Amino acid sequence: MNSHQNARLTVHGRALLVTRILEHGLRPEEAAQAMGVSVRTAYKWLARYRQEGLPGLENRASRPHRCPHQISDDQRQSIINARRKRRIYRQIHQETGISVSTIARLLHREGLNRLAALEPAEPPNRYEREAPGELLHLDIKKLGRFDRPGHRVTRDRQKGTSRGAGWDYVHVAIDGHSRIAWACIKPDETGASAWRALIAAVRYYRHLGIRLRRVLTDNGACYRAKVFARACQRLGLKHTTTRPYRPRTNGKAERLIQTALHEWAYARAYDNANQRAEYLVTWLHQYNWHRPHSSLGYQPPVSRLPLLNNLVALHS
């Protein structure tokens, strides 16, 4: 333990003080005056040396030997157990009789002061299909239409509005192995639009030599529609859905949507929604053919295709 910055005596100074009293014959008052400390301090170190010897001159913590108001280990554990049952501070106080301030300090020290800490995030559950086409992730993102640049560009919320412009529904798809993405914009998210988007996606992946076998969606009404089920049956696709309120199961599609928002939808200033829709094709090409992916060893998704024809091999 370090000495206080204003301390007059170190361990060596205390030993010198005791030596001058016991061996040199100085009175405690004279030794204290010579060392620049009070007489009471001289008597304190002299008494401690006589009781414990040189170890008694070492620094000690100022923590008291006993604390009558300190909670016991059983009380501490009861507070933690009550907190894990999602009790608030006042409820724990009523159950244990311990003050709210003590409960707050204990739970803060244990890292349980926030209720969110009681439910830690689940570890990442990353998985990858063994071959392209084994699983296709589908999802929909709703984007507002506009006929003039919005306040993100103009910085004016009064002039940059497009009231009544409607919505664009971006139907996205991504292969679970290669990460090759596809998307199109439909006027709604009905079952009819969903199966039309599915047919267009099947044609796109078939053009790349990928034969789809299974699709994964959430529990949206368009994916539970009969027309979508008939489309999957005619195309020979097995349709599975995610568990309710479990978007992480369809995480690849969710991640694709976020990437599209950052790199396409909100990446530049578009004059209107039609111009944004036209750029979607260009962005998808960049995403599939040129954009490096960390999950693919920083290679583009098209590098995962098993067989490349001459046109793909020579593409740059």
Overall description:
The chain is elongated and about 105 Å long. Helix 9 (226-235) links the parallel strand 4 (214-217) and strand 5 (238-241). The protein is of the alpha/beta class. It has a five-stranded mixed sheet with strand order 3-2-1-4-5, with helices on both faces. The protein has twelve helices and five strands. It folds into three domains: 11-57; 73-118; 136-313, 2-Layer Sandwich (Nucleotidyltransferase, domain 5), CATH 3.30.420.10.
Jot down its keywords.
5-stranded mixed sheet, RNaseH_sf, IS481 family transposase, single chain, alpha/beta, Nucleotidyltransferase, domain 5, 316 residues, 3 domains, DNA-bd_IS481-type
Total helices: the number is: 12
| CATH architecture assignment of the largest domain | 2-Layer Sandwich
Q: Look up the CATH topology of the largest domain.
A: Nucleotidyltransferase, domain 5
Identify the overall geometry.
elongated
- Total number of distinct structural domains: 3
The residue fraction in helices comes out at 40-55%
Strand order in the sheet with the most strands: 3-2-1-4-5
The SS-based structural class is alpha/beta
Question: What is the straight-line distance between the termini?
Answer: 67 Å
Sketch the major β-sheet: 5 strands, mixed
Radius of gyration: 36 Å
The counted number of beta strands is 5
Classified by CATH, the class of the largest domain is Alpha Beta
Q: Strand-and-helix sequence, N→C?
A: HHHHHHEHEEHEHEHHH
What is the CATH superfamily label of the largest domain? Ribonuclease H-like superfamily/Ribonuclease H
Beta-strand content estimate: 5-15%
Can you tell me the residue ranges where pLDDT is under 50 for at least 5 consecutive residues?
A: none
**Whole-number mean pLDDT:** 88
Organism: Alloalcanivorax xenomutans
Domain Integrase catalytic: 128-308
Protein name: IS481 family transposase
GO molecular function, one term: nucleic acid binding
